[in-house]
Fold these 3 entries.
Entry 1:
Amino acid sequence: MKPFASHAKEVANWEYAMSLTIKDDKMPKTTVKGSQFAQPLFEFSGACAGCGETAYMKAVTQLYGDRMIIANATGCSSIWGGSAPATPYTTNSKGHGPAWANSLFEDNAEYGYGMALGVKTVRKQIAAQAEVIVASGDDKLVPAFTAWLEGINDADASKAATELIRSVVDTKSNNADVQKALDFVKANDEYLVKKSVWIVGGDGWAYDIGYGGLDHVLASGENINVIVFDTEVYSNTGGQASKSTPTAAVAKFAASGMKVKKKDLGMIATTYGYVYVAQVGMGANQGQFIKALAEAESYDGPSLIICYSPCIAHGLKAGMSSAQYRIKEAVAAGYWHLWRFDPRLKNQGKNPFILDSKPPTASYQDFINGESRYTVLMSQFPDEGERLFVKAEEDAKERYDSYVRMAEMKY
């Protein structure tokens, strides 16, 4: 930190920057370039410098922030996401922004599921009232409510129709049923635009303590989105091992290195066949990440996106400023793999599994030697370290080979 006086000259620059209009209509927001013209509705978080999690959330809010509802599991993301009395989530010029709330490790998935069901129920009630209005044949009201019913599950269409409804909803009707319907719609105005519900949390929540609830929500078939910030360790509570911790990594409760391989949460979710799943790494392939976001949010069913997130607990020898580059190195070394599973492709006679990672081109051993969570094992337990380092690479290769087999399956 530096004295404020030394930064006073930047005030004018800041005020100028804040006076500029958002130009998010110049190209599709579902592209890397297009997404970055959109206003982030996530800013100034209190996360560790270089945190691998926050970059993902910033991007999500650029695409869907003005209509997002977030259920956040306790963990790092609930700390940088809502440390009272401040929050990094903000609003756009219309006052629209993410609605955020935090729940426990053990019930966050169910918490978000309840939000999704609540929104769904209210919107069904609005639709029933809209049908009453359309049936009345009122020339002033019918076009707006017909447009809304036709675009009820389309974000852009529901936004446009919502503006039409707001322009006529104060109309007074002599028909008691129509007036009652108009009053109900006005009272529930905030639900007119299609909501984008996201359940978010870390691997301690998703892989371990909250896994039962997460599995229940994914199995429900409801249209709900889940993001997991995978740091491969319980980051916020002090660095305890989770089922996401890979072979050979040192963490609390795994002081002599993790002895078993990392749980493949994504592949477990694909066994349902109707869950959209993606494993992403922003620093390795930004396009694949944005594509996964767009596919997941547009999918009419449950979606799960698992994001590789370098953490201060990893002990990056290059420092946390290299977090995004470390993601790129992780994919190049075959440590982390990029893939998507889109159930919609089955209806087209295509393989729903898409492997976005190419075969490893860099040394796996060189990669893990770039993090102290691995090298400390070799210094303290060299014999065990040598054994586990070999096993860790074998586990990673076995996982990649299984993905290759899936990608080659015929449909």
Note: The chain has two domains: 34-113+200-407, 118-191.
Entry 2:
Amino acid sequence: MSGREIVGRGAGAGVVAEVVAHGSGVDPDPRPHTVTDHLWVDGAPVAGLDLTDGDDPGAALARVRGHFALHRVTAGGEHVLARDPLGVNKLFYALTPGGVESSNHWIDLVRRGHPSERVWSVPSGHVVHLDPARRRYSLVRYAEPIVAEGDPTGPDDVGEHAARVRDRLEETFRMVAAVAAGRPVYVSLSGGLDSTTVAVLARELVGPFTAVTFAVDEGGPAGPGSRPDDDLTVAGRVADDLGVPLLAVLASPEEVLASVDDVLCDGQDWRDFNVHCGLVNAAVGRAVSAHAGPGPRPLLLTGDTMNELVADYTPVVYRGREHYSLPRLAPAKLRRWLVTGLDSGDREVGVLARAGVDVVQPYALCADAYLAVPTGLVTSPGGKQALAREVMGDRVPPYVYERPKVRAQVGGEEVAGTLGVLVDRGSTATRWPAASPRSSVSRWATSDASSGRATTGSPSGTRSDVSDATDVREG
């Protein structure tokens, strides 16, 4: 295939081996925040946001779109901390003798000497006002996802929703183009509907980029890309159609297993689904960072959060056992809990940030438009595909619309990927908290679920009204 570069076993294996070794057990980033904030006001990118001017930071935040975790200090010594409405960027804090210390990664604060039970999380869509000297604290919600229930009223209703989603998507990619200028740009591409839509819009509205696809290479004669349903095969076809190069990231089972501890800490979650996804992103992050080389920090666009927005999840059966089980809820309630559960877990942004890669999730920036689509439309059989056809038309190739749903951690219609690697080697969520050599991870399960303290399964869950859903998985 023209334009394909393979990083991993075989060609380029030495580069990945070097990056994998560097990624294991490194010291935490010395900066307080390791994740880049992306903010836009009235469609234009802004370098920061002043939350200290006036008594209502929520009014300033209401004009902002983006992924952010902000910590500002007023002239009077009050600390103001805020997170984006979906909680894409995480924000933890701990009190110090001199004030408040914050980080995007819970583990960084623990490594700096803060006891885990004294590390707190700012909930998504909230502002925290904290004045340690005066012993004052308040937690204020400024945004909340609103999920449309019911069914579409007719064909015209579907077309109107599709038009709003299309307009919001195109507006979002024009916003992204402004922050992508002058940087190496990558797009996660599995060949599925969500990632292909991102790739098509990025090619049209952002410009040239490198597509990147992950696969586990077991080392046998029939390696990744040998089956027509493989992510690598379909992603290569999409990349060729778009005229962009493809970076194929191949990881051996041993390399996958070597990343588990780092993903547990940097992904801030030990539930199977999110760890399996985090392992994919750990390999992608190392490969993208090495491929981009010195210079501006690379920017990766992904299709994450779409599945939460439309509740597009089904369990996967592997070796006779069901994985990624869902709670038995009505569709609208499941959709809301999955979206709210994005507050917890950091399978993508936190993991990739450790590799020096910035992430933008375009679907998360369009959450309001997608959540306004009636639940009965997007959760009905074929409903998501029908909406996508209305939104994208023939801009997405027919073979992508027709492809069955495949998850990156599974790798194809025949289950494999990081799920297969870990299950076959007995590495599961029931063993991780106690078995991890980074013993602080095991303390996540004992933290208080109230008042912004860590919940069972992840250090970043914050509210009791979503704990039942996020205990199942983030989404």
Note: Residues 9-31, 434-475 have pLDDT under 50 and may be disordered.
Entry 3:
Amino acid sequence: MAEQAAVGSYRKEQFMQSTKFTQLEKDVLSGLLEEDKPYTIEQATSLLHQFMNKEAN
């Protein structure tokens, strides 16, 4: 069963519709966020920055 979203948290599909993120950021978040798990904007932004700042091998 899907987790209950806490106040101030959003699901993956809501981030994909957001105007807060660029299309590139949405593409990255699409691969990073789990389908039915709620995330705060801060959590999603942190995951995005961690991925973008990762050193390429």
Note: The mean pLDDT is 90.
